[in-house]
Design a protein that fits this description.
The protein is α+β, with helices and mostly antiparallel strands and 219 residues long. The chain has 6 helices and 11 strands. It has 2 domains: 147 residues, 3-Layer(aba) Sandwich (Glutaredoxin); 44 residues, Antioxidant, Horf6, Chain A, domain 2. A 5-stranded mixed beta sheet has the order 5-4-3-6-7. α2 links the parallel β3 and β4. α2 crosses α3. It is elongated, with a radius of gyration of 20 Å. Keywords: Antioxidant, Oxidoreductase, Peroxidase, Redox-active center.
C-alpha cells in the first residue's frame, strides 16, 4: 500500500544521475517532489520529464527540490535524457534515481516486497504501479500522494497549485477551497475558534454558514 499522508517519508541511500545520495540529508530544509516512472524510454514519461525540466524554475521559486525515479540503471537514464532533450526540448535538470534493487519502490509501496530479479527484464506493464507523486515537506513528512495510470500524463500545473496550497496552509491556519489558485479567498481552518479568528482577522470574514468562514488569502 502507498504510504499515507502525515507519515515520515522513508529514508534511503540510492545511486542517481547526480551521484549517490542519502535522501533525508539531500532534502535538507527544502520541500521535495519525488516522482516515479515504471521504465526508461516510455512515451508518456518522456513527455513528463521534459515538461518538468522546463518548469524547474517554478519549483525553485517555491523551494522545492525535484527527484525522479525509475527501476532502470542510471546509465540508461543518461541515454534516455538525450531522447528527452531531442523530443521535448529540455533534458532532466534534476537527479534521477536508478532503483535497480527496487529498494525505494518497495519502501514507498510502489512495488510488492516480493519483487526481485533483473530490472531490465521487466516491462513497463510489470512496473505500472510505479507512477506516483509524493510531495514531502521540510519536516520529512509526506504531504500529498498522487498515483497515475500509465496512459495519463501528469498535470504539473496542478502539482504546482497543490504545493502553493500546502505551503500557504503550513504557514497560516487556513484551508483552500475547491479550484483555489494563488490570490483567491481562503477558508479559516476549523481548528481556529471564532475568538481566535477575531484576533487573527480583525476585519472580520464572510460566513455563509457557521462552519464556512471565508477571508482573503493571507500575505
Amino acid at each position: 500500500m502507498t504510504l499515507p499522508i502525515g507519515t515520515t517519508a522513508p529514508d534511503f541511500e540510492a545511486e542517481t544521475t547526480e551521484g549517490k545520495i542519502k535522501f533525508h540529508d539531500w532534502i535538507g530544509n527544502s520541500w521535495v517532489l519525488l516522482f516515479s516512472h515504471p521504465k526508461d524510454f516510455t512515451p508518456v514519461c518522456t513527455t513528463e520529464l521534459g515538461a518538468l525540466a522546463k518548469l524547474k524554475p517554478e519549483f525553485d521559486k517555491r523551494g522545492v527540490k525535484l527527484m525522479g525515479l525509475s527501476v532502470d540503471p542510471v546509465d540508461n537514464h543518461a541515454r534516455w535524457s538525450e531522447d528527452i532533450k531531442e523530443t521535448q526540448g529540455a533534458a532532466p535538470n534534476y537527479p534521477m534515481i536508478g532503483d535497480t534493487d527496487y529498494n525505494v519502490s518497495k519502501l514507498y509501496g510502489m512495488l510488492p516486497a516480493a519483487i526481485s530479479g533483473d530490472p531490465l527484464k521487466r516491462t513497463a506493464a510489470d512496473n505500472q504501479t510505479v507512477r506516483n507523486v509524493f510531495i514531502i515537506g521540510p519536516d520529512k513528512k509526506i504531504k500529498l500522494v498522487l498515483v497515475y495510470p500509465m496512459t495519463t500524463g501528469r498535470n504539473f500545473q496542478e502539482i504546482l497549485r497543490v504545493i502553493d496550497s500546502l505551503q500557504l496552509t503550513a504557514k497560516h491556519r487556513v484551508a483552500t477551497p475547491a479550484d483555489w489558485s494563488q490570490g483567491d479567498d481562503v477558508i479559516i481552518a476549523g481548528s481556529v475558534s471564532n475568538d481566535e479568528a477575531k484576533t487573527i482577522y480583525p476585519q472580520g470574514w464572510k460566513e455563509p454558514k457557521p462552519y464556512l468562514r471565508i477571508v482573503p488569502q493571507p500575505k
